[in-house]
Design brief:
The protein is elongated, with a radius of gyration of 17 Å. The two termini are 24 Å apart. Strands 1-2-3-4-5-6 form a six-stranded antiparallel beta sheet, with no helix packed on it. The protein has 118 residues and is mainly β. The chain contains no helices and six strands.
Amino acid sequence: DTLNLRVGLGYNRYQKSSDFSTVLGPDIHASVSYEYKLSPTISIEALGGLSVMFTGEDISSDSSPSIFYGPYIQIMGRFSVNELFTLNLSAETKFLFSNVFTPYELTGIVRAGFTYRF
């Protein structure tokens, strides 16, 4: 069992309804993670923290500031095929607020992939 601190970068793309142009919303997220090994080859990890996103333009309809913040949660599962290959499955969600705790967006994604160590 391990407890870790993780920091990550990401971005969202938004399309403005006024002229259909694209606005990027980069985000920074920091979380505390806890990994638990179910067996020598299978482990699960839970992360919880804070995400902050900002945009260069106002993307909200009520002239809210272009800084958004909120909780970030991720759950991951790993299966080590051997010492080189690992299969991964993760689900994450962010609930972003703007202005004074005005809910703005709830997003989520599920990803599957593999890791190769060299």
